[in-house]
Write a structure and sequence with these properties.
Blueprint: H1 21-26, E1 41-45, H2 52-60, E2 62-67, E3 81-84, E4 99-105, H3 114-124, E5 125-134, H4 153-164
Parallel strand pairs: 1-2, 1-4, 2-3, 4-5
Helix pairs in contact: 3-4
């Protein structure tokens, strides 16, 4: 498996690298350069729903989903590991610094304590690991189970820098 810098794109599709051109240049990476060479541990917050991007991530990583309920087909042959928990509290059953990547794709608009979620994601990712957070800026109300916030890039940067003590990059 290889994740590569996508040539000529501002944002790559799942299965390719999601580094922005500026970040790639700072790291000395060009199109076709490999940034991960082995299946890395990925914790997908709110995953396990069977969406296409989850299927791609499952094929390319050692995938685990964290959600408040197990998916209906949990435990069936070929299904990835799923664990019950809340990103808004400490999940003591998941060790600190245990994942190379932690993602929350279209999740943060559904949680009531995003500062707690940011803290927990930073606790779970390894030092030097990658956090991937995608949120809608403008979208209709969609309560599953609730719909609470919309974010700007400035709000996300503040959230993770203030509550996680890390510096962030907009990709």
């Amino acid at each position: 498996r290889e994740l590569s810098v996508a040539s000529g794109r501002n944002f790559a599709v799942p299965g390719e690298c999601v580094l922005g051109a500026e970040v790639a240049a700072e790291r000395g990476l060009g199109p076709g350069d490999t940034i991960l060479t082995d299946p890395e541990g990925l914790l997908d917050i709110g995953g396990g729903s069977g969406k296409r991007y989850e299927m791609v991530m499952r094929q390319q990583t050692n995938y685990t989903s964290l959600d408040f309920a197990l998916p209906p087909d949990h435990g069936t042959s070929g299904r990835p590991r799923s664990v019950i928990g809340s990103v808004q509290r400490c999940n003591a059953h998941l060790p600190s610094s245990s994942y190379d990547m932690v993602s929350a794709l279209n999740v943060f608009e559904h949680i009531v304590a995003p500062w707690r979620a940011a803290t927990e994601m930073l606790r779970l990712v390894k030092n030097g690991g990658l956090l991937i957070v995608i949120v809608p800026f403008s979208i209709r109300y969609h309560a599953y189970p609730i719909d609470t916030y919309r974010y700007t890039h400035t709000a996300l940067r503040y959230l993770f820098e203030r509550h996680g003590g890390v510096s962030t990059r907009q990709l």
